[in-house]
């Protein structure tokens, strides 16, 4: 995931939570001081949760990228001339055929 998209995640999460809290405090008819205190605490809480979530996502992205690079490096090291021997496949088929014929 790109870092610019990740930077927006806590802000979007915080704004969504803030709008829900604002609607809920209006619905339940809280006093202004109580509603603002609840709103401020929820904004801070969800911003921190968003930041923690970004750290977790960045960690897994970094681990997956390192794993992908290691697999690519191993594939490049193992890459070499591949010899295909069509006679070997035919011999195996004949031996299996002979073995099955002897069983019958």
Describe this structure in words.
The chain is built from three helices and no strands. The protein has 104 residues and is mainly α. It is rod-shaped. The mean pLDDT is 84.
Write the layout of secondary structure elements.
Blueprint: H1 3-27, H2 32-78, H3 86-103
Helix pairs in contact: 1-2
Strand percentage: under 5%
Q: Looking at the structure, what is the overall shape?
A: rod-shaped
Largest sheet descriptor: none
Helix segment count? 3
Order of helices and strands: HHH
Distance between the termini: 61 Å
Uncertain parts: none
Proportion in helices: over 70%
Work out the radius of gyration. 31 Å
Mean pLDDT: 84
What structural category do the secondary elements indicate? mainly alpha
Strand count: 0
In short:
By secondary structure, the chain is mainly α. It has helices at 3-27, 32-78, 86-103. Helix 1 runs antiparallel to helix 2.
Which features would summarize this protein structure in a list?
0% strand, mainly alpha, single chain, 3 helices, 104 residues
